[in-house]
Amino acid sequence: MKDSEILARIRQGDEGALDYLYKKNYKMMTKMVINNSGTEDEAKDIYQDALIVFWQKAVSGNLVLSSKISTFIYSICQNLWRKELERKSKLSSEEKDSPEINDVDRRERIEIINNSINNLGETCRKILTYYYFDNLSMSDIAEKMGFANADTAKTKKYKCKKELDELIKSKYKASDFLD
Amino acid sequence: MNKGLNYSEKLEAYIRNELTEKERLELEEQLRQDPLLQNELTLQKDIIASISDYRKNELKQRLNKIDVSSKSSPGDFTVGGAILGGIAIVGVAGFLIFKDSGKDLSSTQLSGAVSQMPVDSQHATNPSEVTSENTIALADTYDTADSNMPETVTSPANVNPAPKKTTPAKNTQTTIAPVVVEATQAIVEEEEIQKDDKLVLPESGVTKPAASAEPTLIIVDNNTSKYKLQYKYTNGQLFLYGFEKPYKIIDLPDQTQRFLLYDGKFYKLNRNQPQISPIQLVDDQQEIKALESYKSNNP
Predict the structure, then answer these.
(1) What transmembrane ranges does the database entry give (chain B) (predicted)?
(2) Strands B265-269 and B258-262, sheet pairing
C-alpha cells in the first residue's frame, strides 16, 4: 500500500489501515527504543502512542506530510521516548527529594468521569470520541454513524455531552458545580 | 440557574480554542471572578481529556490484538513470493529452453517469457492480492521496498536496498523502476533524520491548533554547536538548532504567527526564513501577555 493510500484510508477512519501500519513498522520502531535502554514493553507502548498521535492528526485531515509516513512516525517515537526518559529521570530525582504528591480529589474526579463514560450508550461514546479525540467534523461523524446529516450529528453530540455531564454531576454535591 | 448549561458550550469552545479574542477575554475575566465557573472549566477539561483517553485505550487495545510475532512484514510475503515465483519461472523457462534446445528460439520469444515473470509470480504466490489490474501489483512491489527501507537505513554500513528486491527490475521495467527510485529517495529522507540521534519531533499537542494546514514536521539539531537558538524553514519543515531544553511551539488560533516558548521566553518564528537565523525574542509586553494567557489555557 502506498503512503498516499494509507493516508486516504486513515482519513476515512479506516482502522484497518492503522493495523497495517502497526504491523509493517513494528520491528523498526520498537528497535529504536530497545536500542536506547528501553524494554520491549516500553518500546511497544511508545510505538503505539506514536501511531495514535499519527492517527489523530491524520484522521482529522489536518496532516500535510512532508516526509514518508514511517519517517514521520519514527520521529514521533524518538521524541516520545526522549520525553519518557526525561520523565523517568525527573521522577527518580523527585522520589529522593520529596514525598509523592497525591491529588486525591482529582483522581476521584477522573474515576467518576471514566465510570460515567462507560455508562454512556455505545452510540454516544462513539460520537464523543470521534468529536473530541479524532477531531472529526459533524458531517464526517454523520457519515460514520449513518446519520442523515451534520445537523443531526450536532444535535446528537450535544445531547450525548449533556447526558455525560449530568451523569458525572449526579455523583457530586449540587453545590460543587454550576447546574 | 442554568448558567452551567449556557456556559458549558462556551467553556468547551474555550478549551478547544474556538472562541474569538473578545469572547475569550470576556470569559477569562468571568473565570477570574467566579470560582464555580473555574471549577466547571476544570471539570470540562478533565471530561474532554478522559474521553480522549478512552478512545486512545480503545485504539491501543485494538493494536495489542495484532500479532507482530511473525518476522516478515506484510509486504515481505509478496516480495518473497515474487522472488520464489520468479526463480520457479526462470527454472521452467530454462527447462523449456534446454528441453527444446534443438529448436531455434528467437530473442523476442525469450524476453517475452521472462518479462511476464513478476505478474505471474504474483498470481502464483498471493492469490488474495491478485486483481486484473497491473497497478495493484505495482503498488505492492513499491510498498515492499518501502517496508524494508528503514531497516536498511538504520545500519549505516548497508544503505542500499536489498539486492533481492531489485533483481526483478532487470526483467520487468514497468514494475521495478518505481521500486528502485522510491527506495533510494526514501533512504535519503531517512538518513536525513537518522544522522543525528537527537533529532526530535514534538508530539501533536504542541503544534496547535488542529486547523493548521502547515506541515508539522519539526526537526531539532542539538549537535551543531555553531548554531545557538537558530532556525530555518525548508520545504515547510521547521529546523531548530541549538535547543537543548524542552520547547513548545505555539500557533495562535488565527494562524497569523507562530511562536516558540523556550526557557521561559517567547520567540517569533518567521515562516519565510530559508536561511539559518537567530530566533527573534518577543519583547512587546502586550504580545507576551497574550501568549502567557494562551499558554495557560493550553498547557
Answers:
(1) 77-98
(2) antiparallel
